[in-house]
Amino acid sequence: MGPTPTTRSLAGSALAGLLVGLAFLSTFRSMERTRTLSAQRTELTQAFEMLTQGLSDLKDAETGQRGYLLTGSPAYLRSYEQGQARAEQAMKAFPGLPGARSLPPQDVEQLNASTRRKLDELDRTLQLAKGGSAAEALAIVRGGEGLLVMDRIRTVQGVLAEELQRRREDIDQTLRVERNRLRRTLLILGGLAFLALGGGAWALARGNRLRLAAERSLATSEARLHLLLDGIRDYAILMLDPEGQVATWNKGAARIKGYEPQEILGRHFSAFYTAEDQASGEPARMLQAAQEEGRVEREGWRVRKDGSRFWADVVITALRGEDGALLGFVKVTRDLTERRQAEEELRASERRFRTLAEEAPVGIYEYDFRQQKVYANGAHCRLTGVPRDQTTRERLRASIHPEDRAGIIERVESDMRESRTFDQTYRLRHEDGIVLWVHSRGTPIEDASGQTTGYLIVTQDITAMRAAEAEILAKAAALEAANKELEAFAYSVSHDLRAPLRHIDGFVGLLRRELGENLDERARHHLEVISASARQMGALIDDLLAFSRMGRAEVHKADLDLGALFQGVVQELAPDAAGRSVEWRIGDLPRVQGDPALLRLVLLNLLRNALKFTKGRSPARIEASAELRPGAAAITIRDNGAGFDMRYADKLFGVFQRLHRQDEYEGTGIGLANVARIIHKHGGTVSAEGEVDAGARFTFTLPAPEAP
Amino acid sequence: MSELKRVLLVEDNPNDVELTLTAFEEHHLANEIVVVRDGAEALDYLFRRGPHADRLPGNPAVVLLDLKLPKVNGLEVLEVVRSEPGLRALPIVVLTSSREEPDLVRCYELGVNAYVVKPVDFGDFTRAVGNLGVFWALINQPPPGFLPGKG
After folding, report:
1. Does the pLDDT at position B1 exceed 50?
2. ipTM here
3. For labeling, which of A129, A480, A568, A636 is most exposed (least CB within 10 Å)?
4. Chain A contacts to B (CB-CB under 8 A)
């Protein structure tokens, strides 16, 4: 990890600071130097001016001298005295000047000496002049020595002035350089200061920003952690301080232990332990163990706020700081009550299954692919005769009848490979040698992921069932054969029995025609009897055939309108009712479920009967009405005819049973038997009520039409 | 309706033959009635073979066919006739004692024109046969190729 921006900027600032320091130092030194140089320059200027002034003064003195010498005017003496005084002063002071110290001493010495000589010369001359020896004075002057000295003074002075000037210019140069340097330094200084300031400010701001961000992220993390802990409701997660007092509390803890945060924070966690555990010092031992091993996990009883106990799994982990000091503990508690309950239920369910399997009357056999284990219940062992402890897959296979074995094994294995349910019927051979027929149904057993782990096979002994089936089949076949015979019989009867009857009646008729008027009453009567008998027998045969046909007939149920059927039959019976006064009162008749052809016969029989037995009535009243009952309709046909004696009512519906003599009412006695048979085939009932000479009432019920 | 048409009666029982013929007389039907006594003879007649090879050509206007016959029974005759192109359209009335439904069903399947059950009662019998005669021999137009009967 390289230097962070903040570190870098700090380093940069430090560097800038250092540079500033250096710059300051440089500036300071520069300023010092400038001051020194300025001072030096001033000195030089001072010296220069004094030098120049001195010369000027000297010249003034000379001029004064000359003037006095020439004119003798005291004014010239004054200017000489002035000049001389000043020059004298200058001469004395100049060498002591700081600016003059740097000058070559021999030159200064020379100047001084020359100036002395000049001044002396001037003084001498003037003394002479004042004392009246002006001509002597003039001669000295004319002598030119003074001139020479003056030249020499001028020259030296010029050299020195030049030197001073040069030196001054040097200093000026240096000062200029120095000023530039200073300006540059100041600029750099300014720039550095600015940079340092800027960098510092930026670093500060950044540091601030980072700090704020860190604070915020910390706050968010904290909030999230809090949310996380709170969100966990299945585990109690709490923190203990090093002494074991509760420091934090989450929703899971509240739910499992029953305390609200404010009730438990600050209290010792031994409150969660049972009285016995507290007495034995278990809480302290747990903390000790946690400290020593870092983490301790135990299962045990814990107590809720309300005092109830629950089985818990507890993990206590010791929290340590970087230095290894104990900061506290984290305690995670899980309520295992539910798990225990689930385990109990599972065990109970297992027990139930085992009991069920054992007591079941069918053979149950479970095969586990992975473990290659077989469970067979008692019934199965009884079927095969193989004792439970010897029940293996191979042994069970051996129980299959040899003739069926290969086929069964092949089919079942094919199904098992595809995890299909299979149904197989085959023979088992009991250990005793008895062969029985069984039916096995195999269902795959799947684990949670849907993979087939085994098969559950339920085997039923169907030997008895098969025998019963065979018997039924045999009986059915026999019945069928019987029916066929009956049919043939009926056919024969209908054909062969009728023909002679026809002939009897036919030839009797022919006979009657032949004999014509030759027949007397008695003869005619005899012939009539023969005819009638033949016809009666024909009717009987017809009815018998119809009756037998009815027994074999199938009921083809349809939704039909009874009212319409009634009307049809009434019309059919019109010829029978011709010439008579008959009142038909057909009421509201419902729709019913039934065979139209057969029900028509029922109505035909009943109404024909009604007509027959109301022969003596005028008007004959025949009513039909219906009464709706739940799931059925009851139809009643009432007549005002001869009625019957209720004492013999149970004979009414018998075959060939009659309650009236043949000469009273013709008939074969089979009509009502037919009616009964047909109605019974429909699943209904018939009943009759009557009173001698007061009419009869016949009722039959039919199921109502099926709901659409 | 000028010519009298021939009627073929296929009946094995002599009594029934007599009764039938009497019935025809009662109704003053003068048609020629040819009587054959079993199914085989009926086919011989219709196909003009065997003992009937020399009969006059032409088909009867109607065949009154009993079902219970020796040798070849009525249903077999019906089946054969109905599968013969030249005889398919021949009007056939089954006249039998049997009212059994299988017989009825089979006859109509085979294309019978009418099915009449012989009544036991003489009066009814006479009336039925008479009506048949009147209708088939007088009123009904037979298909082309019928045999003109002796007047």
Report:
1. no
2. 0.73
3. A480
4. 490-491, 494-496, 498-499, 501-503, 505-510, 531, 534-535, 537-538, 542, 545, 549
| Cβ-defined contacts of B106-112 (< 8 Å, 24+) | B106/B75, B107/B67, B107/B75, B107/B78, B110/B75, B110/B78, B110/B79, B110/B82, B111/B78, B111/B82, B112/B65, B112/B78
In whole angstroms, what is the distance from residue B73 CA to residue B110 CA?
A: 14
3-state secondary structure of A520: coil
Count of Cβ atoms closer than 10 Å to residue B101 Cβ: 10
Closest by CA to A12, choosing from A177, A203, A153, is: A203
Kindly report the backbone phi and psi dihedral angles of residue A140, in degrees, each rounded to the nearest multiple of 5, phi listed first.
-60, -45
Instruction: Measure the CA–CA gap between B27 and B126, rounded to whole angstroms.
Output: 9
Q: How many residues does chain A have?
A: 708
Q: Determine how β-strand A686-691 pairs with β-strand A632-639.
A: unpaired
For range A67-86, the mean pLDDT: 84
| Residues A387, A390, A393, A395, Cα dihedral to 10° | -70
pLDDT in tens, A130-142: 787 778 878 877 8
Band (B2; pLDDT cuts 50, 70, 90): very low
* Window from A624-628, B4-8, B31-35 with minimum mean pLDDT: B4-8
Beta bridge partners of A700: A635, A686
Provide the 10 A C-beta neighbour count for residue A635: 25
Backbone φ and ψ for B150, nearest 5 degrees, come out as: -75, 135
Q: CA Rg, chain A, in Å?
A: 77
Interface test with B, best of A495, A507, A536 (most B CBs within 10 A): A495
Tell me the CA end-to-end span of chain B in Å, nearest whole number: 12
Asked if A502 and B19 count as a contact pair (C-beta separation under 8 A), the reply is: yes
**In chain A, % of residues over pLDDT 70:** 97
Task: Measure the CA angle with vertex A163, ends A161 and A165; round to 5°.
Answer: 65
Integer Cα distance of B20 and B125 in angstroms: 8
Q: Taking CA atoms, what residue in B is nearest to A509?
A: B122
Q: How confident is the model at residue B150 (pLDDT cuts 50, 70, 90)?
A: very low
Nearest-by-CA chain B residue for A545: B100
φ/ψ bin of B144: left (φ > 0), alpha (ψ from -120 to 50), beta (otherwise) = beta
Amino acid (one-letter) located at A536: Q
Rounded distance between C-alpha atoms, residue A30 and residue A175, angstroms: 10
Give the Cα separation of A78 and B96 in Å (integer): 207
| Banded model confidence at residue A452, pLDDT cuts 50, 70, 90 | confident
- Asked if omega into A619 is within 30° of 0 (cis), the reply is yes
Residue A227 has pLDDT above 90, yes or no: no
Give every CB contact of residue A4 below 8 A, 6+ residues apart in sequence. Answer: none
State the residue for tokens 């225990």. Answer: A340
Q: Which residues contact A673 (CB under 8 A, 6 or more apart)?
A: A547, A653, A654, A655, A656, A657
| CA atoms of A636 and A630, how far apart (whole Å) | 17
Query: pLDDT per residue over B89-108, tens digit each?
Result: 999 999 998 878 888 999 99
Encoding tokens for residue A692? 């001698």
Q: Residue A555 — very low, low, confident or very high, per pLDDT cuts 50/70/90?
A: confident
CB nearest to B100's CB, from A494, A508, A538: A494
pLDDT tens per residue across span A244-262: 999 999 888 998 898 998 9
Q: Which of residues 72-131 of B touch A (CB under 8 A)?
A: 96-103, 118-123, 125-126
Q: Residue B112 and residue A260: Cα distance in Å, rounded?
A: 103
How far apart CA B146 and CA B59 sit, in angstroms, is 4
